C-alpha cells in the first residue's frame, strides 16, 4: 500500500495542485460569447423577398388600449367619457368580455398626482377583479413629455 506521507527527505517539495485552472476556460467562453453576439443579428436579417399581392384583409394586430383617467376632483373617465364610480365594475366587465382571451387589452391608467393613493388602488382593484391585468401607469417624464 502506497501512501503519500510527508517524509524528512521531501520537505522542500510541494504537493501536487489538485485544483483545475478555470481561467483559460473562461477566456474561451468569453470569446465564444462575443462571436455569438456579433453573428446573431446577421442571422435575423433575413433574405430580401418580393412578396405577392393579396386581397385578404390585414390582421388587426394593434388593439386600441383602454384609457382610464382620474382627475384632481376624483372623477373617473373611461376613454375620455365620464363614468360613475358605481358603474365602473360593469363597464370593466363589458370591456373584458369583448376582448380576446388570448390577448387581453392593455389599460393605461392616468391619475392626477394629488390624488389619494387609496383612490387609485381601488380602481386598480376593480381592473384586477374584471380580469384586466395588463395595466400601465401613465406618468410624465422628467423632460415634460
UniProtKB/TrEMBL annotation:
UniProt entry tagged with the keyword Transmembrane: yes
Topological type in the membrane? Single-pass membrane protein; Single-pass type II membrane protein
Keywords of the record, alphabetical order, are: Cell cycle, Cell division, Cell inner membrane, Cell membrane, Membrane, Protein transport, Transmembrane, Transmembrane helix, Transport
Please give the Pfam families that the UniProt record associates with this protein: ExbD
The reply to whether Nucleotide-binding figures as a keyword in the UniProt entry is no
Cell compartment(s), UniProt: Cell membrane
Q: Where is this protein chiefly located? A: membrane
Q: Please give the NCBIfam families that the UniProt record associates with this protein.
A: tolR (TIGR02801)
The similarity comment for this entry is: Belongs to the ExbD/TolR family.
- The name this protein carries in UniProt is Protein TolR
Species whose genome carries this gene: Sphingomonas echinoides
Corresponding gene?
A: tolR
